[in-house]
Specification:
Length: 255
């Protein structure tokens, strides 16, 4: 990143560098600080009339709320603001990004309406998984798994949500397979969504192993998350869940 910043010659390149740097914040559970940086970036982009960068960062803010914090209400507020720019042609993959943000905002009907227009496999796989339609997502996910055209960060995104979908329906084998595949794709500072999802994968793998009766591995994953988030915001739902689950397993082990 330091090398990239030193070679940056445009404002857009500097903005991208800033976003890469802040990817460490969701990774370590510092969402309050993260959102402050993101708001500053949005305001600065609008102030210099760089609407494309502002809209991209605005959508990313919605993803932090919806995917990272599970706060669909705040994600929905961000989606409404981003939707006012839906007809812009200078924002890459804008319609697909709006569809994903709609899904994270619990506006599933609108998400699928937009996805019908875009025919975007990444968005379709995630939206179907979020809404519990695992079987409908399966052929799309399997095609994504085989393709070389989709970057690793995008596959990680798809695999996590598909694993979570399978876990919720009780298919622990498939859930574990795709959660482990997602974990294997993690690489720090490659793309911001990885910073969001690495902790979530640890929690999911803990829950999968707990459901399997493998308490030792469940405890190991919960500890990995809590060690990673030792300086995290105290009110993150995933953090609270990991603490509660670990405490319960430890209490049961002491009986």
């Amino acid at each position: 990143i330091v090398a990239f910043i030193s070679k940056a010659t445009t404002q857009q390149a500097l903005d991208q560098s800033r976003l890469w740097l802040v990817s460490l914040l969701p990774y370590t559970g510092q969402y309050a600080r993260l959102l402050g940086v993101v708001d500053t970036s949005i305001n600065q982009a609008f102030a210099r009339a760089d609407t494309a960068t502002a809209v991209q960062t605005l959508i990313l803010k919605g993803v932090f709320f919806g995917a990272g914090l599970g706060n669909s209400e705040r994600a929905n507020e961000t989606f409404d603001r981003a939707l006012t720019f839906k007809d812009r042609t200078d924002v890459p993959n804008l319609r697909a990004a709006l569809a994903l943000l709609a899904a994270f905002s619990n506006r599933q009907a609108l998400a699928f309406e937009i996805l019908q227009e875009t025919q975007n496999p990444l968005g379709s796989a995630i939206a179907l998984s979020i809404t519990g339609q695992c079987d409908q997502a399966t052929p799309i996910v399997e095609a994504i798994k085989k393709t070389q055209a989709m970057p690793a960060w995008a596959k990680l995104w798809v695999f996590y949500h598909f694993a979570a979908c399978r876990f919720e329906e009780g298919d622990l084998t498939s859930a574990e397979q795709y959660a482990e595949a997602a974990l294997a794709l993690y690489s720090p500072l490659d793309f911001i969504v990885r910073g969001i999802y690495y902790p979530k994968i640890l929690l999911l793998l803990g829950k999968i192993n707990e459901a399997k009766g493998d308490t030792q591995n469940a405890v190991r994953y919960y500890h990995r998350l809590l060690d990673l988030w030792k300086n995290a915001d105290d009110d993150i739902p995933d953090l609270l869940e990991a603490r509660q689950r670990l405490a319960q397993l430890q209490e049961e082990a002491g009986k």
